[in-house]
Amino acid sequence: METPKPPPNTAKLTPNDLVVGGRYLHANRLFIRQIDAIEGDTVVWHDQYGPGRCGRRAFLKACPVVATEEDVTRSDRDLTEISRISEGEFTLRDEANALTAFAFRNGILEDLHAGKPSPVLSQPGYSRITDEEMKRLMIEASEKLAQMLRMKRDEPASYEDFIRRYQRLYCRNWQR
């Protein structure tokens, strides 16, 4: 059976347009995410830096269009160029930024952020996140940090490569 083809990348995608095996261009136009599975509202994907999972709306916010072959070629070329250019000093703050991005990005926080703005957001004194959402957020972040610390302890060279590349992709414009 042939894998269904996603709509062309000029179309505005909806959550129901996402397909397993589809490749989607990240909003930063630097890398491509491929969907490995869709479990209810959860999209399981991987990109050049590993696996991830998030809600359908969060996925579409991060990857709003289907990747063309040209996008894939450009992504590979640009990632190679970024790696070559940014091999300078890597600070403790750079590592902290990368760990923060890894722990909180592309998960429940993105799902929470993907919704419509609420009038409550402009009114001080109101909670903007439920206790259950906060619990899920902290558990997920702790699991991701444990994954990174385990890699740092058990595979230091792999950790160093991963964390530097992640910083270059996600945190280039963060405060250093």
What do you see in this structure?
The structure is a single chain. The protein is 47% helix and 14% strand. The chain is an alpha+beta fold. Strand 1 and strand 2 form a beta hairpin. It is globular, with a radius of gyration of 17 Å.
Instruction: Please indicate the percent range of residues in DSSP E strands (runs of 2 or more).
Output: 5-15%
Strands, total number: 5
Q: Return the string of H and E elements.
A: EEEEHEHHHHH
Biggest pleated-sheet summary: 5 strands, antiparallel
Distance between the termini: 50 Å
Helical segment count:
6
Strand neighbour order, sheet with most strands? 4-3-2-1-5
What's the domain count?
A: 2
**Helicity level:** 40-55%
Instruction: Decide which structural class fits the backbone.
Output: alpha+beta
Low-confidence stretches: 1-8
Overall geometry comes to globular
Q: What is the overall pLDDT average? A: 83
The gyration radius over C-alpha positions equals 17 Å
Break the fold down into its secondary structure elements and pairings:
Blueprint: E1 23-25, E2 32-39, E3 42-47, E4 50-55, H1 56-62, E5 65-66, H2 69-85, H3 92-104, H4 108-113, H5 131-154, H6 156-170
